[in-house]
Amino acid sequence: GPQHGKGPLSGAGVRDTMALAMVGKLRRDTDDSSQLTSSSQTSTTRETEEETPQQPPASCQTQTLSQGNQPSRHRGWLSAVAIAGLLGSVLAAWCVVEQVRYGRSPWFWQWGRIPPAELQPEMCNTKLWVPRVDWQRKWRLDAATLAQCELKNKHHFPWQYPHDRNWCWIGFKAVCHSHLKAHLSWGSFQAMGAHFGRTVSPAEWRFEPLEDPEVCDRPSNGRTGNWTPVQRSMAREWLRMYVRVYVLNMPDDTKRWEMIAGRLRELRIEAKRVFGVDMRGRNVMTNAKAAGWVLEGYNFSKAQETAYSGKHSMGSILGTLGCASAHFKVQSQAIADGGPLAVVFEDDSWPEEDFVERLWSLVHTELPCDWEVVSLMSRCPYGKCVSPHLTRVQPDNNEPAWRCHQGVNWGMQGVLYRIPLLEKVQRKWKQQVFNESRPHCLDVDVALASISDRVAVYAVPASQDPGFLKETNHPSARWTINVAGRTQHQLDIDPNNIG
């Protein structure tokens, strides 16, 4: 027969040669130093012709004679698995060391939105879930019930645009609007509204503007806490290190400034006075735009014309513009001053005796780490209760976008801001506020609630008694300026169209 490596191989020779190669490779894997002699090759060839040859690994069956000395493909795959396992172990160890809780950390719930640097225990409770909210939630009623509510309410609110509105909800909200300083729950408001014929009874169609109301929509949740001396000391030190406090006050309203400044001194809270904005002054609009408190391209004349239209029926909005400008002004001051957190009071606010302790406790125990803005007193709140003193604000889908989902989540008397995130929030907020086609959005609290699906806004319900703060009985500067700007034919119209 032909010799190995010389001349053509017969069919039997090919089989013999392949068998030799496979057996030789298997033996080389176990003993690299052994070599095969010609006689052992011949003997092995005869044995393999008489017996069924041992099958090599599947990955080897497709290899040719020239590939016999190449490493197995299994080795690269196993190496990748080993590397992946090692990386997984390192990641798990890091999570243990850094106390990252799978499924509970906001960083994992909202990947990329909250960087690890923002998960600071002095800014939020790092152990809390980021709440899940049903952004499409609304009060869904049948056509007959809606028609009945419209028949009852239309003559009570003649300025309200009638088309595509939920009149049961308009009547329900109106009860809250007429009891703004009362510490009452939404359940109480619906019962009162049904009694006066403004909305349907809870027994027939119950609606919860605050989802899970048993968690936070209760007056008793606002009671003063039993703070220990250690807690009071910790709260005071935390405020000193992390929180700047500001008060918005008109330049000529010294009595209000003296009132709130005196109250803050009693509470040992150091505050900076920031002047409000009165748009009736000369060149005030120009200066406000130059400073960035009003968007450069904002056309107030167009916005006022829209507000006067029958669809909106708002009357003058000059005072509302000044109020919005003032809040963006004080925010800009807080950003310039720096620091992690800022509290802004309006000058008709009256913080409770244990305000510092309440704020410290709220941030450390109840506030999720995705937060950007917290209203410390929110009237007619709409959203979801997430803790005993806190709601996650959401837009009111019972009201159309052209109305800026208006009529809920009112209150700028005391607001907590997260300064490193505030510029980003401002960009979204200003775009909503300075929209000439939606004059209801000029109210900064209304606008903020309307974008709460894009900005993480939380609030303390005003139903809680006494809560964090209360509003004094001073008249609203915004409302006063708006009323002064009404025309004769608008005297019977609510200057703010609060419904």
UniProtKB/TrEMBL annotation:
Listed InterPro entries: Glyco_trans_25
Glycosyl transferase family domain sequence ranges: 245-364
Domain of life: Eukaryota
A Pfam family per the record: Glyco_transf_25
Chain intervals with Polar residues compositional bias: 58-71
Transmembrane regions listed in the UniProt entry: none
Region feature (Disordered): 1-71
Biased composition (Low complexity): 33-45
Protein name, as recorded: Glycosyl transferase family 25 domain-containing protein
Lineage summary: Eukaryota, Sar, Alveolata, Dinophyceae, Gonyaulacales
